[in-house]
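Appendix B. Chain record.
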Amino acid sequence: MAQPNPLTTPPPGADTQLVPGHVEHTEAHSGAFPPFETSGFLSQLIWLALAFGLLYYLMDKVALPRIQAILHARAERLRTDLDQAQAMKSEADAAGLAYETALRDAQGKARDIAQTTRNELAAEADAKRKALEADLNTKLSSAEATIRTRTEAAMGNVRSIAGETAAAIVERLTGQAPDPATLDRALDATAH
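Structure tokens predicted for this chain:
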């Protein structure tokens, strides 16, 4: 059993017409769910048509044009950005190609300069080597001539020393000095 609501139920002995918020529930609840009552269909349909028409007008004249303008601006901005990106990519590709070409040219020039420098240094070294060899050959020839001269002088001195030594040995052994003509013939025989 349901408890009476103290706010809507008057105290015992009170006049029910003076209590605010009190509704007399003497009639039984009858009828259908208010939106489905047939007596209000016409007014509901009119309000539905008015609400739909107003909503359609607002969507057609206010909301959809704004949305369409936003989408169009976004598509235009995207197209512009893509065109700019493509242009920048083309510029970057051209700059990269120019860089690679310049790099190849610089490497070729560096190789040419290195080869030229190498050839110049090799030619200079070869010229110095040839000059040094010529100088050394001249000094060697001079030294050989000096050695030959000194050798001949020494050999001439050796002959005289050998003659003096042989004469001294013969004189000591025999007690007499040898004949110089005989001594010269003996020295000539031993020299050949």
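Further analysis of this model is presented in Appendix C.
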